[in-house]
Specification:
Elements (H helix, E strand, L loop, with lengths): L1 E4 L3 H14 L11 H5 L13 E10 L2 E11 L7 E9 L3 H17 L4 E4 L1 E2 L5 E2 L1 E4 L15 H8 L3 E11 L7 H11 L5 E5 L5 H15 L11 H9 L10 E6 L2 E10 L2 H9 L13 E9 L1 H23 L3 E8 L3 H11 L3 E11 L2
Parallel strand pairs: 4-5, 13-14
Antiparallel strand pairs: 1-2, 2-3, 3-4, 5-15, 6-7, 8-15, 9-14, 9-15, 10-11, 11-12, 12-13
Helix pairs in contact: 5-9, 6-7
Amino acid sequence: MQIVKVSEPHHWHCFFEFPRRLYFRDPLWTPLPLSAEQQLFNPQTNPVLRHVNYECFLALDKGSPVGRIAAITDDLLPDQRIGLFGCFETVNNSEVVEQLLKAVAHHLKSKGKQQMQGPVTMNTSQQVGLLVEGFHLPPQAQMPYNPPYYGDLLEQQGCSQLLDLYSYLWDPGQIKALAKLKAIAKRAAKIPGIRFRTINLNDPWGEGKRFAAIYNQTMTNQWGFVPMDQTEAAAFLAGLRGSGDPELLFYCEVKGEAVGVCLMMPDVGPELRAARRFGFAPLLPLPRSRKLRVGVLAVVPEYRRRGVVALLLERALQVILRKGYRQAELSLIMASNKEMNSIINNVVGNSGKKVFRIYQKPIE
């Protein structure tokens, strides 16, 4: 077996094609089109690469790829002793994982790092976590998905659990404590000057400034927090234009200032899985999905205890039911975020849960 740095066109081809070979027989795997995945590695389409650097590696067995990984550094991580690993895919072989992690450790050590954490692709505001529970549930687009053996292989190589993140599945028609939710929301609705406003995706630059301000206030104390600037936020919102339903994206404002945000995206997983089977060739339109993902639901600290979280949830519930959605996924919620987990469990309820894990390993 050989570990090679990905630099030549042939190796980049293998790097992107390897997951397609690995998951060929897995009906739940939900890849983006190849061109969309490649945009993660392009600074013009992924502005986090202005402060993120990466080195990609392939594991080859007699010239055929059997694993891949990326060593990642982020100049804005608050703890500069930490490096990241991502783009992790492998056959079920402990030797492959051992050699991939050694390549990452060697690279990160040369950058002065003392610990690796991951999987993270490309930074902590993008795709994070390894699926460890909920393998039978179809993934939504751009959410982590992997075989069950990945966690075991990482742990065999000395990786240990750093933190878990939850993805809750809930039936909007079966709210556990609807009366309580409405009572709290009613109180919050009396805040002077409070209103909802649909996000204008035709102005990603201006709306990005507002989104970045909320993100940076609400995520400060979370693991791996890296400030999001206006350029990154604008690129993120611009990427939502294809969601097809602007009513699912809205701010909560007080006297014109955004204090909360809710971003919901229809589940395009069935379309991607169908397109995958036909090589992403144009298909006839499929029936509209009745599932969606609540990807962001955030309120600035000043308004959290004034019931604005409940007000956002109530508004989201109204939109979901009016649009005919039958299942919503709330993700990703850090296990350490006790306030949000309590609200979801005690007020909204859930009909299932996926668990994603971040691992850590010292670099020796």
